[in-house]
Specification:
The chain is built from eight helices and no strands. Helices cover 67% and strands 0% of the residues. The longest helix has 16 residues.
Length: 128
């Protein structure tokens, strides 16, 4: 995996949680697996723009649904019920779903998610 692919893997769900438009633009940049200094500069610009866009209920829901896909076939019934309950009450100001998904990533040892910015930066999810 190249450096830009690692960077995109790290940023992907975080960008999705902030802006579907920026997520789509970065996906387009990465689509042909050809990377350049120009694309690197554009990536940095798009990430900075996405950071200025606060997550909304819709963008968080989309990002978390993608993350949930890693667990939906191996979680317990109780975990699925908890996921659905937290999803139903999710708001950017009241986000208990991110920490729960981080707990699942730890429990099921999903390296891709454990190194994802969305789960790593979720303040409530950090271990104390």
């Amino acid at each position: 995996m190249t450096q830009w692919q690692r960077e995109w893997a790290y940023q992907k769900y975080w960008v999705m949680a902030h802006s579907q438009q920026h997520y789509d633009a970065i996906r387009q940049l990465a689509s042909n697996n050809q990377w350049s200094a120009t694309k690197e500069a554009r990536l940095k610009q798009l990430l900075a723009e996405a950071a200025r866009q606060p997550p909304t209920k819709a963008t968080l829901t989309t990002a978390y649904q993608h993350v949930w896909g890693y667990f939906k076939k191996r979680c317990t019934t109780a975990e699925k019920q908890r996921y659905l309950a937290l999803l139903a009450t999710l708001t950017p100001e009241h986000d208990l779903l991110g920490p729960f998904l981080r707990q699942l990533a730890l429990k099921y040892q999903v390296p891709y998610l454990l190194s994802s910015r969305l789960l790593m930066e979720n303040k409530a999810a950090r271990e104390t």
